[in-house]
Specification:
With 219 residues, the protein is mainly α. Helix content is 63%, strand content 0%. Bound molecules: adenosine-5'-diphosphate and nickel (II) ion.
Length: 219
């Protein structure tokens, strides 16, 4: 089995696992992250095989899908071990995947080039028009409303507030999405992120305009 076949087999496997997901981790998200990752890998000089494999498998290890990160990583490792890969390749792929879910801020070891690229691609897919759409899908799947002026928009929410469904889709923009442009690892991703960020700002501006009826006096 050559590298291309390893990729194809992995793509089929992930597609089977995520095809029916409705929480924003569907197969199309994986396809976009795969494409973005490969584009960034070329621009940043990361290993395209490690990057493509890590992009394909990055959400299998997500605790929202696997139950826990340990379980998810075990699934990924089991999958990789039965492919004809060297120990070194397996470790590089695992390392890159663990970067993606890394929340940042608690002083872990420096990221590999491949990890940085896939993390940037995953974050880019949370931005722009697609990012907006995914946010509302996710909020809907959790029973959150899209906006509630009674809930102040704050950057952090307590566990209690989440439990009582006091998060809204709009909340997520302030809590995470608008911060992502400053968290990109690579120059190429930062440039794309700026564009997608601007689009989200325009969206929010228009959302509040319509909500408050400020666009209604034009006729
Ligand atoms: P990924 O790592 O693939 O970005 P996440 O599990 O972090 O996946 O989120 C899936 C999608 O749902 C992303 O687009 C994310 O921005 C969005 N999302 C995550 N948490 C919330 C939330 N509390 N409210 C609304 N959208 C959310
Ligand atoms: Ni993802």
């Amino acid at each position: 089995m050559n590298k291309q076949e390893c990729i194809q087999r992995t793509a089929d496997y992930v597609k089977m696992l995520l095809e029916h997901d409705t929480s924003g981790h569907d197969w199309w998200h994986i396809k976009r992250v795969r494409r973005l990752s490969l584009m960034l890998a070329t621009q940043e000089g990361a290993d395209p095989f490690i990057v493509e494999m890590a992009a394909l498998l990055h959400d299998i290890a997500d605790e929202k899908i696997a139950g826990s990160e340990e379980k998810g990583m075990a699934t990924v490792r089991a999958w990789l071990t039965q492919l004809p890969l060297s120990t070194d390749e397996i470790e590089q792929i695992i390392e890159a995947i663990s970067t993606v879910s890394y929340k940042g801020g608690h002083g872990k070891k420096p990221l590999t080039q491949e990890g940085m690229v896939v993390q940037d691609a995953d974050r880019l897919d949370a931005l722009g028009a697609i990012g907006i759409a995914r946010t509302f899908m996710y909020a809907g799947s959790r029973g959150h409303s899209m906006y509630d002026p009674a809930i102040p928009v704050r950057e952090t929410m307590t566990k209690e507030e989440y439990r009582y469904g006091r998060s809204t889709a709009l909340h997520h923009f302030y809590e995470k999405l608008l911060k992502l442009k400053d968290l990109m690892n690579t120059k190429s991703a930062r440039k794309l992120a700026m564009e997608r960020h601007r689009f989200m700002e325009q969206f929010l501006q228009q959302f509040y305009r319509e909500w408050d009826g400020h666009d209604e006096d034009v006729n």
